[in-house]
Amino acid sequence: MVSIMFLQILVLTASAVDGIYVPDASTDNTDLNLIASKCPKNCNCSHQLMTAHCHFNYGENNDRDFSAWHVTSLKIHGDSSTWIFATSKLSVREVLYRDMLEKDEKNFRQSLAGLTHLEISYVPISQISDTDFGDLKKLVSLSLTNDNISYVAPHAFENLLHLEDLNLDSNQIQKLSDNVFKKLENLQNLQLRGNMLNVIKGKVFEGLPNLKSLDLRNNQIEYLDTFVHSLNSLNTLDVRGNEISYVSENTVEKLLQFGQVFLSKNPFWCSCSLKEFIRAYQFKSSSMEDSLTCLAPEELAHVKFEDLNLDSLPCHGANVTSLVRSSSTLYQQSLVLDCQVSGDLPLALYWITPWGENFTNTRSKLTFPDDFEAMKSEESISALNLLVTSKVYVSKNGSLHIEKYRGYFAGDFTCVGVNLNGQSNQTLYVTIEHKLPMIHITSLFVGAFSGGSMFVLAIIIGMVRLFVNKCLHSDTCNCCCCHCDDVEIYEYDEKVKIEDLDMEIEVKTNESDCSPDFSEYDPSLPPPDPPVNSPQLRLSPDKCTTPDNEENSDQTKVCIKSTLKIRNIKDAGSMKIQSIKETSSNAASKVKKNVASGMVQVKYGVQSIKEFCGTSDMGPGTISMVSISTDVDTKEQVQMVRSHTFV
Q1: pLDDT the model gives residue 96
Q2: Is residue 242 part of a domain?
């Protein structure tokens, strides 16, 4: 007993220290194993309920060990100065369980099972998915502001049956799916301020029987008619700072059922079409407490609603302008038909096409839903025989676009402008322009130019090839083929004659000089064969004629020493052989035969002289040499006779 009392005193003393769990009086003795649990950092803890209210900074390593605690309120804030430049795109679930291991995530998810308040701001969240709040079914308040959210999944909030406050301010939401809030039966306050909402359809807010306040400030909403009729329990509607220019009579009646309506900073067009709304503001302004002014027409700009005279409001019907009477386009080219409509708001337009269908844009459908709902906004029309698909649609500014225009679309197009004060229309006829004659003429010019260019180019190429071939097969040096300074040119005659051999004849009277040299002569050897192209013309010494001149009785031995300069022949032959290698073997054969013939003739002449000089008792006489040269190609023979007389 004493030990138990001492233990209770110890517990009571330690209860003043943060993080000590104090059991209630009904706790058994066996459950008095005290566990010292420290309150997590950045949290406020309730020791009796073991609950925690935590505030984390996104991006920091926060202590998330909540094993002994139940988190009921969680705030995660990022850096407001840098969040908009963040490149990462996260979901709510990824932010909650950021950088956590699987085991830690499981424990943390159990700690968040009782979460009732969640606030995340200035964190780069790109979307709200269907599974983000599957473990947070007890949420009562959810705030996701300044997070760059651009998409909300159709079933994102269907598990939040206890949700009462939803704040999605200052994001990038452009569109909300039908019935996205359908199961939030306990939702009372919905804030969508500072987004990019343009058109809100009626089914978006269906299934909200307890919604009391709806904040749609600073969006791009143009029409109230599309959604206010589904807000049956709403008390406060705030649509300040939007693009509302017109309020229909049915919508005025619905607005008067709300407790407070805020409509300032909208571009109201004060005409007779807005008369009922201005009247409701003037006679029952208690629900419309803010001050409303006109933006247009020009004569009523900046005039307050309470100062307007309902009987003098301007009324201008729709008027179609800026439409040409006729037009044409090429086959399968894109066609754009512009139509401008002026007049009092609300304005709408539609197109009547030659094939019997009417086209309009989404804005016109929202302006007059009953009249324009059955019209088409776009359509793809296929031509199976041509395998061509054309797209027809009306843009936001009212222009009719036809991609790949063809004969099926040719005809009258009528643009119709409509407002509450009347309508007008204009028609234009569109045909297909044929460019075949012009294309034919152009093709002729192009073909003639191309053919002439190729002809001139062929002539140039032929001349170049002819010039190159002449250079390569020329026997002489051309400056286009080689450098003349680097080549030694030898001129020679193809027909080598004895007269061209530059023969030197010396007559010597010195007996010692004329004595025959028998060292190399062998009488047993037969005389050399004469050349094939020269007959046997060697003259016997007995038949030599005796000269008439007898003044010198002494017999003089005459030695005719013949020195032939064969270098010219050799050089000419070498040059010719080099030319033969570069040209053809036929020319080489001719040169070889001519050179060989000349060499044999010279050899025969020299041998004849040596034989004659070997006769010691020879008297005066005459030596005649005959040479016959035959052209290999023409078979022409040239006979040359040369005589030398000695005494």
Answers
A1: 83
A2: yes
Write the DSSP string, 435-459.
-HHHHHHHHHHHHHHHHHHHHHHHH
Distance between CA atoms of residues 359 and 467, nearest Å = 73
Q: What is the pLDDT of residue 33?
A: 34
- Phi, psi (degrees; rounded to nearest 5) at 44: -110, 125
Q: Which of 258, 293, 313 is the last residue of a domain?
A: 313
Measure the CA–CA gap between 213 and 322, rounded to whole angstroms.
45
Give the range of the structural domain holding residue 65, as residue numbers without chain letter. 39-172
Residue-level pLDDT at 588? 53
Please give the pLDDT value at position 604.
57
In a shared domain, residues 19 and 121: no
Of 417, 414, 430, nearest in space to 353 by CA? 414
**Which tokens is 323 given?**
């439409």
Q: Do 618 and 524 lie in a common domain?
A: yes
Give the residues of the chain that fall short of pLDDT 70. Answer: 1-37, 61-67, 81-88, 99-104, 285-286, 325-326, 385-386, 434-441, 473-627, 629-635, 641-647
| 215: β partners | 191, 238
Same domain, 1 and 81: no
How far apart CA 361 and CA 348 sit, in angstroms, is 9
- Residue 606 pLDDT: 52
The CATH number given to whatever domain includes residue 336 is 2.60.40.10
> In angstroms, rounded to a whole number, what is the distance separating the alpha carbons of residues 120 and 70?
19
- The verdict on 598 and 551 lying in the same domain is yes
- Of the three residues 291, 313, 335, the one that is the final residue of a domain is 313
For helices 567-582 and 585-613, angle between their N-to-C axes, nearest 10 degrees:
160
| Number of domains present in the structure of the chain | 6
Q: What is the pLDDT of residue 224?
A: 92
Identify whether residues 619 and 517 lie together within a single domain.
yes
CB 416 within 8 A of CB 350: yes
